[in-house]
Amino acid sequence: MSAPVRVDGGRRVVLARAGANPYTRIMTAGPTVAWVGDGLVAWVGRGPWGPVAGAIGDVTGAVRLFGTLYAAGELHDVQRVHLPRTPLTAVDGHLRITDHEDWDFRWLAGPLATHPAEHRAVRLGPADAPAIDELLDRVLPRTPSRPGSSRVRGWWGIRADGRLVACAADRSVGRLGLLAAIAVHPDAQGRGFGGALTTAMSRSLLAEYGEVALGVDADNTRAIALYTRLGFTGTVPRTTIWFA
């Protein structure tokens, strides 16, 4: 199998080979360098979230390519790489990493379903920041989406029993509506709050952008089932690794 080679065309090549779906479009929204190989397209882009590398297709080829680029110092400003779903055994010997995460990028690929409680979702303000942080500390302590982050346009939430029981961040960027940090308090799960919040936000962002997407951990089967029911059936499985 021949090694991937760098090609001219950057973003155009990635979209042509991997499909012009919401994931590839947003990941290559800025200046992009591309490599192609047998069953593989890879890139380093400097888009809305800073320098980030990614690949679609052959896992082995992607790991070897980024290992070569990393050793040559060509990824000196890249902290993370979005690979196809990759077992860590495939990375050993090629890349030194500090952390990894298996997740799916999903987008609304059909009509958005309705939810009987979506009217309960409201926009939150600066005064809600402590309650949002408290909820995220309990449910999603590792999320980078926090009140005050420059990458968050705003927050939505649902209140019940006199407290904030669900929240989510609007991290829309470019021409894509993007939901993040969707959290429901453990004591309030199973009452439809996650579905109501996701539906209400998606409806608002869909009207504004025409496309809506979100990310979900690969092992969160409950959330995956919910998002599938709501219409988030477009998906790109990802393994993100962080360099040592």
Quick overview:
Helix content is 27%, strand content 34%. It is an alpha+beta fold and 244 residues long.
In whole angstroms, how far apart are the ends? 28 Å
How would you spell out the order of helices and strands? Answer: EHHEEEHEEEHEEEHEHE
Number of strands: 12
Quickly count the domains.
Answer: 2
Task: Detail the poorly predicted runs.
Answer: none
Shape: elongated
CATH topology of the largest domain: Aminopeptidase
What is the helical fraction, as a range of percent? 25-40%
Q: Please work out how many helical segments DSSP would assign.
A: 6
Largest sheet: 12 strands, mixed
Compute the average pLDDT. Answer: 95
Give me the CATH architecture of the largest domain, please.
3-Layer(aba) Sandwich
Supply Rg: 19 Å
- What would CATH call the class of the largest domain? Alpha Beta
CATH homologous superfamily grouping of the largest domain: Gcn5-related N-acetyltransferase (GNAT)
Structural class: alpha+beta
Proportion in β-strands: 25-35%
Instruction: Give the strand order of the largest sheet, numbering strands 1, 2, ... along the chain.
Output: 1-2-3-4-5-12-6-11-10-9-8-7
Describe this structure in words.
The chain has 244 residues and is α+β, with helices and mostly antiparallel strands. It folds into 2 domains: 5-95, no CATH class; 118-236, Aminopeptidase (3-Layer(aba) Sandwich). The protein has helices at residues 11-18, 22-27, 59-71, 129-139, 193-209, 221-230, and strands at 5-7, 32-37, 40-47, 50-57, 80-83, 97-107, 122-124, 154-160, 163-170, 177-184, 212-217, 234-243. The chain has a 12-stranded mixed beta sheet with strand order 1-2-3-4-5-12-6-11-10-9-8-7, sandwiched between helices. A hairpin with a 2-residue loop joins strand 3 (40-47) and strand 4 (50-57). Helix 5 (193-209) crosses helix 6 (221-230). The radius of gyration is 19 Å and the shape is elongated. It starts with a strand and ends with a strand.
